[in-house]
Write a structure and sequence with these properties.
- By secondary structure, the protein is an alpha/beta fold.
- The chain folds into 2 domains: 130 residues, Enolase-like, domain 1; 235 residues, TIM Barrel, CATH 3.20.20.
- 37% of the residues lie in helices and 17% in strands.
- The strands form 2 sheets. Strands 4, 5, 6, 7, 8, 9, 10, 11 and 12 form a 9-stranded mixed beta sheet that branches. Strands 3-2-1-13 form a 4-stranded antiparallel beta sheet, with helices on both faces.
- α8 links the parallel β7 and β8.
- The protein starts with a strand and ends in a 6-residue tail after the last strand.
Length: 386
């Protein structure tokens, strides 16, 4: 079986009005759910699919690589480690191309008729889900969303904290805790990017962290700029709440350095950002060696969530799934529109690891073709240039 084609398909599914305003967009409304889909085809007609990041696409960087070189490095879809040699280099000079790696694993699983998590360790068949919110709502509205999440079965909820003052963030967290104290509460400062105001100091982050100590929060996520390593370590010395982060890391080498330097309590590599399926399985193993949890960051669409579930299913130290849910705009029906069936949480708060071959999900081509962006591109591996 030889790989023959790579195709980039951008799908823009409309989001219900008034649109989604996330905590890092400064009030801008997101009006579509962007699915950055990669399709890889073989000479036997088997296809594999991967999902890129919402903020970048991967195939463009490969246009500078002669197709014969690329084909020679791939050979056939089982040579994931060979492909990663190229993708790691590509990721240093352009958009991160790890959706291609995901698509290879989808192919591999289909070829051997097994879900990927069974091939990588097969530790669990289901995982607890936490409701990962997106917007900076007022206390009453956030409480209403938290109560809905509890009724749906969620075991935890992650709140965003990037309001004008840290006191406003504390007010929201307190209100939610008082209303649904049985839920595990996670708080995300969204500070990893480092240049989007409000930018927190160690003192500011510590003030919120001390409050999180009092309510025994599950973790405090991305409380400071990810390159402010000494600041993060100082924060950890000052609070008891576990500090989580690392969603923007680009390879296992990034996480090796964070683990050796004991920067985080919980590592949150993102499959689309951080190397794909096998790389994140390696990162999970590194975390296990350091007695740390690996809980993938996955604020993305359904195919990327399915890929994250495959890694979680193979990893003993991955106790939670990030489940993006921000009604009325970001629901499973919108988020997973290109899947035949959305990924759902059950009444006990768990999500099943998809058990069909590959990534375990099937695509809805009627939806894909309906909302496909016309400038999506196709590139033959064997002939011409990517």
């Amino acid at each position: 079986m030889i790989l023959t084609d790579i195709e980039q398909i951008i799908v823009e599914v409309p989001i219900p009005k008034p649109g989604l305003s996330t905590s890092i967009t400064g009030g801008l409304k997101q009006t579509t759910a962007r699915h950055a889909l990669i399709r890889i085809t073989t000479d036997e007609g088997l296809e594999g699919y991967g999902m890129g990041t919402i903020v970048g696409q991967s195939i463009e960087i490969l246009k500078m690589v002669p197709s014969k070189l690329f084909a020679g490095m791939i050979g056939e879809p089982f040579a994931v480690e060979k492909v990663m040699k190229l993708l790691r280099v590509a990721s240093e000079i352009g958009p991160r191309p790890y959706s291609i790696e995901m698509a290879l694993w989808d192919l591999i699983g289909k070829a051997v008729k097994q879900p990927v998590y069974k091939l990588l360790g097969g530790f669990r068949d289901k995982v607890k889900a936490y409701c990962s919110t997106a917007e900076l709502k007022k206390p009453a509205k956030m409480v209403k969303d938290a109560q809905e999440a509890a009724e749906m079965g969620f075991k935890g909820i992650k709140l965003r904290a990037r309001r004008d003052t840290i006191e406003e963030d504390i007010e929201v967290v307190k209100a939610v805790h008082d209303a649904v104290g049985d839920l595990a509460i996670m708080v995300d400062g969204n500070q990893a990017w480092g240049h989007l105001p409000p930018i927190w100091s160690v003192k500011t982050a510590t003030k919120l962290g001390k409050f999180l100590d009092r309510i025994e929060a599950e973790w405090f996520e991305e409380p400071l700029y990810e390159k402010n390593i000494e600041g993060i370590k100082k924060l950890r010395e000052n609070i008891e709440t576990p500090v989580a982060g690392g969603e923007l890391g680009n390879s296992m080498y990034f996480y090796r350095d964070r683990l050796v330097n004991d920067v985080y309590d919980i590592i949150q590599a993102d499959l689309s950002f951080s190397g794909g399926i096998l790389e994140c399985r390696k990162i999970a193993a590194l975390c296990e060696a350091f007695c740390k949890d690996f809980i993938p960051h996955c604020w993305n669409t359904g195919l990327a969530i399915a890929a994250s579930l495959q890694v979680i299913g193979a990893s003993p130290n991955s106790p939670w799934l990030e489940y993006p849910y921000a009604p009325p705009c970001w629901t499973p029906e919108v988020r997973d529109a290109i899947l035949k069936e959305p990924i759902l949480i059950n009444k006990k708060g768990f999500v099943e690891i998809p058990k069909k071959p590959g990534l375990g999900v099937e695509l809805n081509w009627d939806v894909i073709e309906k909302y496909r962006v016309k400038d999506s591109s196709k590139s033959a591996i064997v002939e011409g240039d990517l």
